[in-house]
Amino acid sequence: MAEDPFDIITEADARRLPAGGTVVLRRGGHVTPLAADTLRERRIRVTREDGVPAADLAGLAPAADIRRVTIGSDHTGVALKARLIEALRRRGVAVDDAGTNDTATVDYPDIAARVGRAVARGEADAGIVIDGGGIGSAIAANKIPGVRAAMCPSETLARYARQHNGSNVLALGATLLTPDEALRIVDTWMSTPMTEGRYIQRLARIRLLERPDG
């Protein structure tokens, strides 16, 4: 007998479902990351009631356990970037420095794109971009498919950006924040997971917008 549509498919569900079969995920439903791997291994196809391919949900939630960060800034954010790199490395986070490292003028879109591509390719679990106000770098990073950059001038917005919007790149304004304020924002952003299926399924809608016919 066919399974009823799932609200959530867990690793345990994926193990007990018949290999090579098909299951239906309700609109707004969620496949956990471990379950997604097991479903692929067991060749189980997931379809959705709302027409969004279930495969579009795989890997959409940002990494909950951030172990590697790529960080970059324009010339206005060099000092803040250095402080953040030092603090993150002290905590055991691997940090890739995408530049720049002096005060000679550079164009923030180039740096933001470098960080965004590292995240989109899976070379980093998360990215941080810094310029004077943070807005320009967020705009530039968001041009990279798969990047969800959010400019967060407060801890509250950092939490929302991750929990509700699945942000995988954090944009900071070097002229708007003290180093201590920026570090608290980074801590909040990095430690907030995205777990609710109703939020994750909306990221699939965002991904559809990235397609040429979106």
Short synopsis of the structure:
The chain has 214 residues and is of the alpha/beta class. Helices cover 39% and strands 20% of the residues.
Can you walk me through this structure?
With 214 residues, the chain is α/β, with parallel strands linked by helices. The protein has 2 domains: 6-61, no CATH class; 68-191, 3-Layer(aba) Sandwich (Ribose 5-phosphate Isomerase B, Chain: A). The protein has 8 helices and 8 strands; from the N terminus they run βαβαββαβαβαβαβαα. The chain has helices at residues 11-16, 33-41, 78-90, 108-120, 135-141, 155-163, 179-191, 197-209; strands spanning 6-9, 22-31, 45-48, 68-73, 94-97, 126-131, 149-151, 169-173. The strands form 2 sheets. A 5-stranded parallel beta sheet has the order 5-4-6-8-7, sandwiched between helices. A 3-stranded parallel beta sheet has the order 1-2-3. Helix 4 (108-120) crosses helix 5 and helix 6 runs parallel beside helix 7. 37% of the residues are buried.
Topology diagram in text:
Layout (H helix, E strand, L loop, with lengths): L5 E4 L1 H6 L5 E10 L1 H9 L3 E4 L19 E6 L4 H13 L3 E4 L10 H13 L5 E6 L3 H7 L7 E3 L3 H9 L5 E5 L5 H13 L5 H13 L5
Parallel strand pairs: 1-2, 2-3, 4-5, 4-6, 6-8, 7-8
Helix pairs in contact: 4-5, 6-7
| First-last Cα distance | 37 Å
Q: Report the CATH superfamily of the largest domain.
A: Sugar-phosphate isomerase, RpiB/LacA/LacB
Low-confidence stretches: none
Shape: elongated
Alpha-beta classification:
alpha/beta
CATH structural fold name of the largest domain:
Ribose 5-phosphate Isomerase B, Chain: A
- Overall average residue pLDDT: 90
**Order of strands side by side in the largest beta sheet?**
5-4-6-8-7
What is the count of structural domains?
2
DSSP summary, beta strand count: 8
Rg computed from alpha carbons, rounded to a whole number of angstroms: 19 Å
Strand content of the residues, in percent? 15-25%
Structure annotation, total helices: 8
**CATH structural class of the largest domain:** Alpha Beta
How would a textbook summarize the main sheet?
5 strands, parallel
CATH architectural designation of the largest domain: 3-Layer(aba) Sandwich
Order of helices and strands: EHEHEEHEHEHEHEHH
Helicity range: 25-40%
